[in-house]
Every structure is written in structure tokens, then in C-alpha cells.
Design a protein that fits this description.
Layout: H1 8-15, H2 19-27, H3 34-46, H4 54-60, E1 65-70, H5 77-89, E2 95-100, H6 105-116, E3 122-125, H7 132-141, E4 145-148, E5 158-161, H8 164-177, E6 183-186, H9 192-206, E7 213-215, H10 223-236, E8 242-245, H11 248-260, E9 270-275, H12 278-281, E10 288-291, H13 294-309, E11 317-319, E12 323-325
Parallel strand pairs: 1-2, 1-3, 3-4, 4-5, 5-11, 6-7, 6-8, 8-9, 9-10
Antiparallel strand pairs: 10-12
Helix pairs in contact: 1-2, 1-3, 5-13, 6-7, 8-9, 10-11
Length: 330
């Protein structure tokens, strides 16, 4: 039977506790003892009690909500980021409002304005390319904001990620060390992270007097796209002997097309991806990749935001690094 009309005093009486303890529990369960948490939780569960947050929001101007913007629901790398965010927000009794903007800066501006209209307490963005008006909205709101997935250049308030350019430089250097000289970089959306990776590859090649062949169709990466890009690259520059892809699904597409055309991998064609997705290591021939800590990035960003909201000190910039995985294709 539902009983949403229960008062805090009703819950306290049934749990054998005082009203203040119940109030502290509803604000943050970690503020009360484990025994009290179990008693209150049991009473609420047995009576189907649903807390009413409206008075708390009106009193404290807090919504207990974090807004999250991701570039696309179709890009699987952000599933891990969202899981990391949720691991912290749910444990801290915060909700998330999630929107996507399909890599469109003007749409991001509209979505941010919409999220701010819900009186969110903090904002998490998965990128640093914003319109000037969006930046003005965020600054005027006064909410803490975290930008994820990169730690290079300027940032609004908090940044959590890794150095995309340095990671790409190291992977390209690994190609060069293995004897490869005609190296292609396959981008996808040509967004700032793609371009940072291309710059890293370009710098490593330039140091050896080499140039990169660059393809960027400005569409979301996929296995099918990787196959098409390989076909185009071979038609335009058949001497290519290594391909560095900005995402692992592109790299899987390249590997499949190499196998279909009976290319020796890595003898005739070396391949590497980015992010260390499971798809790249689920095959018999495991694809070299830059392994990125996507879950930890989301978790760390949410933790910093909530610490800030609770008046605690927290770092403004966190570099979580990456790992180079050499696999069987390099």
C-alpha cells in the first residue's frame, strides 16, 4: 500500500529514531549510522514512501540534480563515462539529466540553456568547443562545470581527462619504431579531440621528415565506415603501410577489410585504434589501441562537482592518463 503522506515523524516513530535523524538521512544517508540507515530504509520500503524534494529545493535553492551533455548517444565511448558519473551521483542522492547535441555547438547551447532552466546544481560537458553565448549562460548561472575527455588548453572551471595529442604521438611513434613510414590517420567527426590526435600523429611523423595521410568524413565512427575509409585510402594512396584510427570501431572495420583483401597484418598493414573498446580486443587478432579511463573520468568529474557543491576543496584539473596497448596489429 502506498503511503506518500507519511511525515518524517511517522517514519521516525516506526524506525524508533528521532525526526532529526530521518531528516539527515533524506539529505544524505552517509550522515547517519549504518544501523539508522537500515532502519529508515526498511520503513520507507515497507510503506512505499517517496520523498518529496520540492520543499528542500525551494528552501535551499538546490535541485540535487547534475546536468550532463554528451556529443551523441550513438558513440559508445560515452556509455562508460555516464556509468562513472552515475556511480557517484546515485551514491550521493543526486539525479542526472542527460542530453546529447550530435556534435553541434549551437545545439549544445540550446541544450545547456534547457538544463539550466531545471535549476541544476552542476554541469558536466564532454568537450571544450562551445559557443560564446553558451559560455556566458554557464558563467551567469554560477554552477560548477566540468569538461571531460581532454586536459589540453583552457577550461571553464574543471577539466578531467587525458592528453589526446601526447597519446597519439606515442602510438604513431610505435608505428615508426616498427618500421612503418607511410602512415594514415583516420578521423571521424573532426571534432577537437580528433584534431588533437591528428596533431600528435603529425608531430611524430614530422620529426622523421614524414607526412600523414588524413581522412576525416565528419560522421560518427563505425565498423562499416572503417571499411569504406580503408577502400578510399588504398585507392588514393596504395603505399600506405599503417593506419591509426581515432576510434576502435573504425580500426575493426579496417582489420576486416584487410582480411577480406588478404593483407598481411601487421606485416603489410599495421593498425591501431583509440579508447581500448572491447570490440577491438574481442577478435582473435587483437587491435593495438590507446586505452582511456572513461569510467574513471566520469566518476572523478562527478566527485569533484559534488565536493564543490558541499563546500569542500577539490582540484580544478585532473589528468588520468592512458595506456598504450600494442595488441597483434602493430
Amino acid at each position: 500500500m502506498k503511503n506518500n503522506r507519511m511525515t518524517l515523524q511517522d517514519i521516525a516513530a516506526l524506525a524508533g529514531l528521532n525526526k532529526m535523524t530521518v531528516s539527515r538521512y533524506l539529505r544524505d544517508p552517509n550522515q547517519v549510522s549504518q544501523r539508522s540507515r537500515e532502519l529508515i530504509s526498511k520503513v520507507m520500503e515497507e510503506n512505499n514512501y517517496i520523498p518529496n524534494r520540492a520543499p528542500e529545493i525551494l528552501l535551499n535553492a538546490r535541485s540535487k540534480t547534475i546536468g550532463v551533455l554528451i556529443p551523441s548517444f550513438r558513440n559508445q565511448i560515452f556509455a562508460d563515462v555516464l556509468a562513472g558519473i552515475e556511480s557517484v551521483t546515485s551514491a550521493s542522492q543526486y539525479q542526472t539529466l542527460i542530453a546529447n547535441y550530435e556534435y553541434d555547438a549551437e545545439r549544445e547551447e540550446r541544450e545547456v540553456l534547457n538544463l539550466l532552466s531545471y535549476n541544476i546544481d552542476g554541469l558536466i560537458l564532454t568537450g571544450k568547443l562551445h559557443t560564446e553565448r553558451m559560455v556566458q549562460y554557464v558563467r551567469a548561472s554560477g554552477v560548477p562545470v566540468a569538461e571531460l575527455m581532454d586536459i589540453s588548453g583552457q577550461y571553464l572551471d574543471i577539466q578531467v581527462g587525458f592528453d589526446n595529442e601526447k597519446a597519439a604521438y606515442e602510438m604513431t611513434q610505435a608505428f615508426i619504431d616498427s618500421g612503418k613510414r607511410s602512415i594514415a590517420f583516420f578521423g571521424s567527426m573532426d571534432d577537437p579531440r580528433d584534431l588533437s590526435r591528428y596533431r600528435g600523429a603529425e608531430k611524430a611523423l614530422a620529426a622523421q621528415g614524414l607526412e600523414a595521410y588524413h581522412l576525416a568524413p565528419k560522421t560518427i565512427s563505425s565498423v562499416a565506415l572503417g571499411r569504406k575509409m580503408f577502400q578510399q585510402a588504398m585507392a588514393e594512396k596504395p603505399e600506405i603501410d599503417a593506419i591509426f584510427c581515432t576510434n576502435d570501431d573504425l580500426a575493426v572495420g579496417v582489420l576486416l577489410e584487410c582480411q577480406a583483401q588478404q593483407f598481411d597484418v601487421p606485416g603489410k598493414m599495421a593498425i591501431a585504434g583509440f579508447h581500448g573498446l572491447e570490440i577491438g580486443r574481442a577478435r582473435l587478432q587483437k587491435i593495438a589501441s590507446v586505452i582511456t579511463p572513461r569510467f574513471e573520468i566520469g566518476k572523478t568529474a562527478a566527485d569533484i562537482l559534488i565536493k564543490r557543491l558541499n563546500g569542500k576543496d577539490a582540484p580544478g584539473s585532473v589528468n588520468l592518463g592512458y595506456q598504450i596497448y600494442y595488441g597483434d596489429t602493430l
